[in-house]
Amino acid sequence: MMGDLVVDIHAHLWSVAYLDLLAAAGVTDLEMYRHLAASDSQEDLDTRFALMDMAGIDVQVLSATPLVPHLEDREAAIATAAHVNDEYASLVDRFPTRLRAFLSLPLPHVADAVAALDRLDDERFVGVALTTDILGTPLTDPRFDDLFAALDRRGAVVLVHPVGADARSPLIAARPMRWAVGAPIEDTIAMADLLLAGHLSRFPEVRIVSTHLGGALPMLLPRMQAQQPWEAPDAPESPLTAARRAWFDTVTHVNPAALRAASDVLGSDHLLLGTDYPFQAQDELPADVALLDTVLAPAAAVAVRSRNATSLFSRTPWIITGGAA
Fold it and tell me: Taking Cα atoms as reference points, which of 79, 88, 83 lies closest to residue 125?
């Protein structure tokens, strides 16, 4: 069983074949991803595993975010989702002690996305990866209620990751801050919306994992708590209560103040180790992982590295056998 394996909940991989499929479906701005050394080639995998070993990480959970197959063309979305999910399943088969994966869904086609959830019966997939909005539509839009209801029935883990769409703001798009500023703003908006809309109480069995410490949520949550009675009086529960239903990964880019704030406000028992590989790599990734021991108490650091993941995946088959890859 998982035991005290060190689990990286937030890591990416995109094969050349998958990027080509996205390009054929009309997705643009893919060139950066072709140069990140995060493909399924043996060379890239060897680099990945070496860095995991350096940081003391046993298992990475892969996701295709932000390049999930959210495509208006239904047939393209279905085919592209099936392709990336098959690739990830094959990778887990090749490296069962090092890798697991999040499922990609052919959204915004809800009926097809619900049908695709059958793959969660496969232990190679530990949950679902979504972006902070679906082609510009919030996750809380009623058109996605059937999907959340299906995820709730399964008690599914759902990773929510930025789209990289400048938070749909021309103020960000006009400036060189898409990922440094826009992405954590997308985290913040999506999580604040989920909290205030009551999705975490309405679908209580869905286990939401927000990336990058929930964006600015550790700083804004007390403010949201104070202003919710008059600004969002219809929220079914307070933001702090709702936030305790969610989980947050620890990607900080070696920022001890951010990790300390997240631990204080969100609770270290709801933090999960995340590296954002390959966006944190080389020296930064192991330094960010080591930050847990600098900022957190020893028991809390152990929990964030492994035991919180055991709790998160308590309803997910996770059997790892054999030696290291």
Answer: 88
